[in-house]
Amino acid sequence: MIANNPRTLFEKIWDQHVVYEEPGQQTLLYIDLHLIHEVTSPQAFEGLRLAGRKLRRPEKTVGTQDHNVPTTDRSLPIVDTVSRQQIETLRKNCQEFDVRLYDLDSPQQGIVHVIGPELGLTQPGMTIVCGDSHTSTHGAFGALAFGIGTSEVEHVMATQTLAQLRPKTCEIRINGSLGRGVTSKDLILYLIGKLTTAGGTGYVIEYTGQAIRELSMEERMTVCNMSIEAGARAGMIAPDETTYEYIRGREFAPVNFEESVNRWKSLPSDPDANYDRVDIFEADDIAPQVTWGTNPGQVISVDSNVPDPADFEDPTDRQSAQSALKYMDLTPGTPMTGIALDRVFIGSCTNSRIEDLRVAAELVHGKKIADHVSAMVVPGSGIIKQQAEKEGLDQVFLDAGFEWREAGCSMCLGMNPDQLSPGERCASTSNRNFEGRQGRGGRTHLVSPEMAAAAAIAGHFVDVRHWD
Amino acid sequence: MKPFTTHTGIVATLDRSNVDTDQIIPKQFLKRIERTGFGQYLFFDWRFLEDGSLNPDFELNQPRFENASILVGRKNFGNGSSREHAVWALDDYGIRAVIAESFADIFYNNCSKNGLLPIVLNADHVQLIHDRANQHDAYEVTIDLNEQTVVDDYGLASAFEIDSFRKQCLVGGLDQIALTLNHIGKIEQFEKENGDWLER
Questions:
Q1: E-only strand ranges, A284-337
Q2: Which of B19, B21, B41, B177 to mutate to test the interface with A (most CBs of A within 10 A)?
Q3: Closest chain B residue to A231, measured at CA
Q4: What chain A residue is nearest to B196 in terms of C-alpha separation?
């Protein structure tokens, strides 16, 4: 590699992690951190056992229980025997293969993409993988992080590497500042709406521009988290002072911190670096967003109406919109603010961090949720739960009529008992509004924590920019 | 992994874009700790009505698709969750190849790790296959991975792209971990040169 050849953040990390490459082959990439959880790891451990293989570097593997765990009283046994078996299997596997596990009874247990950054495991310049598509979250730190399947989980366990084709690079630049009441969740939903759910396929996205630089780490994680919803392999944001300050002092932060910061400072894309594609957006154009359909690209501003499928030019898009509206039981032309809700879910790897809970609590403080709404808050980790309780946020939520739960993925995917009933309509701070995602027949609208909190009080969507 | 060389089979249509992995295998079936037995749950919420009976409106339930081993979709097939269970479900159900205009990355990768061939064809050829599968009972295509072609008895001869490494692994049914471990010396050397960041 020629030293003065301008490179992007992605290219720098990729180049630094190439173990082996030859023409016509995929590149063998070294993996710095492998996060595992109970759902996508059991078959990989079993594969190792059957082949008589070990974990090559167990100290670079960290596990937690999140997808399948109950969010109710943890001192009670798990009722669902199949869930319990999966959780016990991870426990046994981590013991057998000597992997650090943040188990159900650990105060640091939580959603894998919440605890990685929280513990300081996630650091700039790293390659990070996990058997979960929302691994893109960690890209917020200027890491190359992406989701993999279970076969690849096993490959990383056995070799600490992955064979990969080099993805293309895409810069998404957002000029200007986000307006009041407009969050990073609205930003990423807006972008997915513009790019479509396949617009990023084959690309690693780097988010740049003033609006991105102004985001906190929590907000950046929300943006990178949903990169996969635009089909992207990964999302990244160059590290800066915000990043370094977030990591400083965390349990796994580098011991020689300043030395690391100096190294990290070489990571941001060089000024003349080229991307395969550049898309530019204006922060001014972005309003609070609400999804109306059954994929995250079917999204619109809260001050708009439910779209009419007849207005879609592409026949497959039109057909998609038609079937989505049928599933969602929505009529074209209905104001988004006229949509009444049954449930509100604040949680998930997209929006369950302390900042998310603070803004939601501020909005509901002293108010009551609407009579016909049931609402729950599920903190992303035990640490967040503890911090929120220290700040009295739990009481604010409880007083307003929310349930306050233990940490986990919960109703984002409804693997545990936290599910929608058929026909129930939910304002959710999670990442996927697929059919049945939160429960068979359940109807999901993706929104920011602010929008979810306000909707819980009002009983329908409101434009938080003009709501008190 | 079972090898994929050539395959001739009946084509079933799935005429929708963005078929996500939550639909292919809903979350309630991800609790198994085995790789097998997922076929019965494939497209569960679409295939079965609330009372557990077959949904007569769902394409795959049509009798003419009963023995299908090739699925033709539309755009962005397999988007969403990384769950490899989606591929295990298709495989266990008897699907050997999926043809679509485009695939989501992780799903595409997962397919090729399980001997299931994902084939990208242009929109015209995908449309042609949809049309013919709807016109003819037990419409078949023949897939030749070595030649990288999809042909039928009515004149379709379509070429597809696949990267050479993936092709080599699929054709040979190769254990990719074993292949990588052939380079163990290079991995050790990399680790020696790059040191450790994670201290315990």
A1: 289-291, 299-301
A2: B177
A3: B104
A4: A32
| Residues of B whose CB is below 8 A from A150 | 35, 84-85, 110
Per residue in A436-457, pLDDT (tens digit) is 999 999 999 999 999 999 999 9
CATH code where residue B109 lies = 3.20.19.10
Is residue B200 over pLDDT 90?
A: no
User: Nearest-CA residue of chain B relative to A27?
Assistant: B165
Flag whether B13 is in a domain: yes
Has residue B89 been placed in a domain? yes
Instruction: Mention every residue, 6+ apart, whose C-beta is less than 8 A from residue A307.
Output: A292, A300, A321, A332
Q: Do A123 and B197 touch (CB under 8 A)?
A: yes
> Please, which residues have CB within 8 angstroms of residue A251's CB and are 6 or more apart in sequence?
A119, A120
Domain coverage including residue B91? 6-173
* Residue in A closest to B184 by C-alpha: A159
* B120 touching A (Cβ < 8 Å): no
Percent of chain A at pLDDT exceeding 70? 99
Q: Which of A110, A63, A71 is nearest to A349 (CA)?
A: A110
Contact B109, B85 (CB under 8 A): no
Is the complex ipTM higher than 0.85?
yes
For A240-256, b/e burial (b = at least 16 CB within 10 A) is bebbbebbeeeebbbee
Q: Is residue B188, in this structure, part of any structural domain at all?
A: no
* Alpha carbon distance A434, A442 (integer Å): 9
Using one digit for the tens of pLDDT, what is the confidence trace for A343-371? 999 999 999 999 999 999 999 999 999 99
Q: Is the dihedral of CA A255, A260, A261, A267 positive or negative?
A: negative
Q: Which tens digits make up the pLDDT trace of B40-68?
A: 999 999 999 999 999 999 999 999 999 99
**Residue numbers in A near B35 (CB within 8 A):** 43, 46, 150
Q: What is the CA radius of gyration of chain B?
A: 19
Compute CA distances A467 → A284, A287, A303, A337, B143, whole Å: 19, 14, 12, 12, 59
Task: Tell whether B50 lies on the interface with A, counting CB pairs under 8 A.
Answer: yes
Torsion-angle region of residue B125: left (phi > 0), alpha (psi -120 to 50) or beta? alpha
- Whether residue B187 is contained in a domain is answered as no
Residues 82-111 of B with CB under 8 A from A: 82-85, 87, 102-106, 109-110
The whole model's pTM is what? 0.97
Q: Which of A89, A434, A436 sits opposite B33 (nearest CB)?
A: A89
What total of structural domains would you count in chain B? 1
